Amino acid sequence: MKKFFAFALAIMAFCIAGAQEAQDAKALYQEAKKLDDAFKKGIPSAMNPNATLTPEAAKGLLQVLDIYEKVMALDTLPDAKGKVKPKYIDKIMKSVMIHATNGDFARAGGVLFNAGNKFPDAYQAFMISGSLAAHNGVVDSVYAIDFYNAGNCAFGVDFAAAHEAYAAARAANIKDPQAYTYDIASLQNLAHQNEAFAPEAKQMINAISKEAVERFGAANDYLFNNYMQHFIDESDFAGALAVIDDALKVDPNHDNFYRLRGLVNFSNKQYEAAMADFVKMAELSDNYGYLREAAGYINDCGKRYLGTLETVSPEQKASILSMYNHALSVAKKASQVPDARPMDDIIEDINYNIENANNL
């Protein structure tokens, strides 16, 4: 008798719970519907051309999805008879697809972004927009912009989230190389924050920069520099020179290509070749950072070359002085470009080296 009574109580509790869940689903759906309607009222239409979407209404659309998720979870629970009879799922899916087709999540993301609610709100809106578009037959390079915008919302705040968004943009065939630039920068920041992640980040950056160079060419200095860094780190000097030579065939007057070849030759202890590359770069460039760097490296070429000699012949002395004089010439050019900053430290060191070399 006691067992029967306990069983009866359990059945009663199950029936009450089922009724409560149905009521909760209905109440939640109605709550979402109100937020959804508020969003729609902010969209200009023939009946209301002056409508303005507020940040509150834009955020409400994100809340709608959160509530819909809860409704669908309740809507798929069995009733008191053990049967599943969804009432809201079809309505929810239809509503979400209409928003996706109309670009409403991207619209919400733009409003939230302009209101300063970049992360996580605008980020979430753009990520949802891109994800829904990807499953809705939209051309990939179109919804790739949503992911790119999401990355820009997260960059500087949450680099892991930014990387996730930029990676999605790259996978969607983004046409803007800046997505690659910011993705690499996100990984570099993550590596700086977590040293244990640095080796993995290094491999990822190499893959991303290689993909970027293959897609867009070597003209973007930041992307090409990151790609070449892998060759230098691995001491693959022959591979590096082959890649740079291919780039020079496309653009023989690109200053950064000679700069990179100079760095490769310097790393490979080919100091005279390195000097020639840096000098050529200096002829083509008015970039203060590149010129200052080149003056320093050419100066170091003279020091390193001198360090390899047990005795110095007149010819070798002439080569060393040539390196120092070229370093001085490049340093002086660096001091005269529009964005120049003081070069006194480098010039002073070069002049000191020239004086010593003359006494050899």
The low-confidence runs, each spanning 5 or more residues with pLDDT under 50, are: 1-19
Radius of gyration: 32 Å
Secondary-structure element pattern, one letter each:
HHHHHHHHHHHHHHHH
Task: Please count the beta strands (DSSP E, at least 2 residues each).
Answer: 0
Overall mean pLDDT: 92
Apparent shape: elongated
Query: Structural class, judged by helices and strands?
Result: mainly alpha
Spatial gap, N to C terminus: 113 Å
- Estimated helix fraction: over 70%
Q: Please report the number of helical segments.
A: 16
**Hey, roughly how much beta strand do the residues contain?**
under 5%
- Characterize the biggest β-sheet: none
What does this structure look like?
- The protein has 360 residues and is an all-alpha fold.
- It is built from 16 helices and no strands.
- It has helices at residues 2-41, 55-75, 89-101, 104-114, 118-134, 140-154, 159-171, 178-193, 198-216, 221-233, 237-250, 255-267, 271-284, 288-307, 314-334, 344-358.
- Mean pLDDT is 92; it is low at 1-19.
Briefly summarize what is shown:
The protein is an all-alpha fold. Helix content is 76%, strand content 0%. The N and C termini lie far apart (113 Å).
